[in-house]
Amino acid sequence: MKSTLFEIMGIPIRSYGMMMVIGFALGLWRAIRVGRRVGFAPERIYDLSLVVLLSGVVGARLVFVLLNPDTENWARFYAVWNGGLSFHGGVLLAVVGGYCYTRFTGLGFWQCADLFAPSIAIGYAVTRVGCFLNGCCYGAPTNLPWAVRFVENGVCTPPSHPTQIYATLANLIIYLILTRLESWQRNPGFIFTSYLMLYGVYRFAVEFLRKGYSAKLLWAGLTQAQVISLAMIGLCGLVLLVKYRRPRKP
After folding, report:
1. Is the separation of the CB atoms in 195 and 173 below 8 Å?
2. Are 160 and 136 in contact (CB under 8 A)?
3. Full 3-state SS string of the chain
4. How far is CA 233 from CA 20, 39, 210, in A?
5. Quick one: 44 exposed, middle or buried, by C-beta within 10 A (0-12, 13-18, 19+)?
6. What is the spatial distance between Cα 132 and Cα 150, in angstroms, rounded to a whole number?
7. In angstroms, rounded to a whole number, what is the distance separating the alpha carbons of residues 168 and 158?
8. What is the pLDDT of residues 142-173, one digit of tens each?
């Protein structure tokens, strides 16, 4: 693994943080390119993306520290480059931050959420490459030919599932699905709700390979992320069925 890519004047450049920055840049580029076509000013997208990014990182780190008091401490709260982020917590606070910004500026919240949903998927896919380089979030031992040995606390794991790469591939597929759904004529919020449900499905599935290794069990043999993902799937599926099953009226 390569948790530190290189150093600049003695300052280490972490692979996780670098991949997060690259993922953010790709997502922002995509949002601006598509936003121009539907009437969003680029400067508004820049501002909103920064609000969403900062809110998301704080929320992701906050929830992760709260859920892992035995391994995390508040003194190292800022060390996001080492990993230790809860995506579900990040989404929650990012939605709050984005909603406050759109209310302040008069933008449509759901239109903005739909615009950003594919960008979140592509950004997440790239960030998971950082998890792979960092050696965290790996899966159970396996004999598959693409198994990888990771280093944890100075000790090599047995050949294990590279679930970080599975996550990257799954979210690239989610991105492609969302870009196809954009052509469907549905009311605002359809793309974002679809993204949350698709993410929940992916996360629930991949956690079966992580539980007991890089994911903690919470209840009934399910991990923390699986319990939250089940709630997301059920709620978003219900919203899609009730509100978005018919095309938008002209």
Report:
1. no
2. no
3. CCCEEEEECCEEEEHHHHHHHHHHHHHHHHHHHHHHHCCCCHHHHHHHHHHHHHHHHHHHHHHHHHHCCCCCCHHHCCCHHHCCCCHHHHHHHHHHHHHHHHHHHCCCHHHHHHHHHHHHHHHHHHHHHHHHHHCCCCCCECCCCCCECCEECCEECCCECCHHHHHHHHHHHHHHHHHHHCCCCCCCCHHHHHHHHHHHHHHHHHHHHHECCCECEEECCEEHHHHHHHHHHHHHHHHHHHHCCCCCCC
4. 26, 31, 19
5. middle
6. 9
7. 22
8. 999 999 998 877 788 899 999 999 999 999 99
The Cα–Cα gap between 118 and 177 comes to 9
DSSP lists the bridge partners of residue 141 as 160
CA pair distance 88, 120, nearest whole angstrom: 13
Q: Which two tokens stand for residue 13?
A: 């450049």
Measure the CA–CA gap between 224 and 238, rounded to whole angstroms: 22
Q: Which amino acid is at 132?
A: F
Q: How far is 243 from 235, CA to CA, in rounded Å?
A: 12
Handedness of CA 202, 77, 99, 230 (dihedral sign): positive
- What tokens appear for 89 in the block? 């917590």
Distance (Å, rounded) from C-alpha 227 to C-alpha 207? 10
Query: What are 213-248's pLDDT values in tens digits?
Result: 878 787 788 888 899 999 999 999 999 998 887 777
Question: Which residue's entry shows tokens 């994911």?
Answer: 215
Pick the more confident residue, 83 or 212.
212
Q: What percent of the chain has pLDDT over 70?
A: 94
